[in-house]
């Protein structure tokens, strides 16, 4: 498979939530491809084609049967793509095994390569076992995720039919792909993922399965020498930071943000009206809207997310806020659809696990979306500054 500068390529990314869609598309945007996130699966392949179409299937919040069905239909729809990438969470949350098998069947690809490592964020695969910062994921904080607790770190258990591979055996990959195998590839650094991608002669024979680490390796191989230059987004007058994730990393980031005198916020309750009125009366240039700190049952989380969505809709429509920073893929999806957004045109990926873009729909707001568990304690501080004082892609705060 080759990528020529004079040909618009069809790259499809199938994701189980919104942050995964952004994480998958971001590296390709950086590599010179136009990229768009679709908030729901389309009825047909978008025409005219954008370089990269990343589809949020929303399957992580479904039961396994519904997630499998939705994934199969999307894979069949995009089966003709020159590159087909199925995202999985780098901590193995969600219906990983069922969705991969459904995507493989729907795509009719010869083989599957599963490489969930994301070394930049400390998520690595060692002998087929997924670790986060040196701890098997089923022993980490992700084992206590209230909605998607991780029970298994061993990909050989999730995929008993898998052939295990690793960088020192990358030369065997063409033969394994020719055999039609399901291949689990271990990686502990970005170079391992680059060796994986370089060893495969035809990228279109494979259903690629992974997290942002593999997406970045594929994007490096498929980089366009020329491409549309991202334009600088307009500075936000008053952003709203929307925090739905209860991940400890996000909560530390929010606490750090609230050390600033120019930040004010509220905690959402079941009734959105009091929060709307309180936020409208605040004078700080940066506003925050958070769910309570404690972990919630899935039912309570859904109620709070709907309340957040109503607040965001009210404040966006009356122009109290003019930009959004959102943490957590499920939160982002719940919040964005009620404001009339159908997708996001990507600008860039300013940090790992973060995408920046503009909403497609009735309110073309600037938006930054961050995966819940990513980043150091100062990340929300940097993102709130970035959306108010945009830098050109490639520049840093």
Describe it.
The strands form two sheets. A 15-stranded mixed beta sheet has the order 9-10-5-11-4-1-3-2-16-17-18-15-12-14-13, with helices on both faces. The protein has a three-stranded antiparallel beta sheet with strand order 6-7-8, with no helix packed on it. With 397 residues, it is α/β, with parallel strands linked by helices. Helices cover 31% and strands 23% of the residues. Helix 2 (64-77) runs parallel beside helix 3 (96-107). The chain has twelve helices and 18 strands. The chain is globular.
What percent of residues are in strands?
Answer: 15-25%
Low-confidence spans: pLDDT under 50, at least 5 residues?
1-9
Count the E strands: 18
Order of helices and strands: EHEEHEHEEEEHEHEHEHEHEHEHEHEEEH
- What helical percentage do the residues reach? 25-40%
Strand order of the largest sheet: 9-10-5-11-4-1-3-2-16-17-18-15-12-14-13
Number of helices: 12
- Envelope shape: globular
Instruction: Calculate Rg over CA atoms.
Output: 20 Å
| Straight-line N-to-C gap | 37 Å
The largest pleated sheet is described as: 15 strands, mixed
Tell me the structural class: alpha/beta
Mean pLDDT: 91
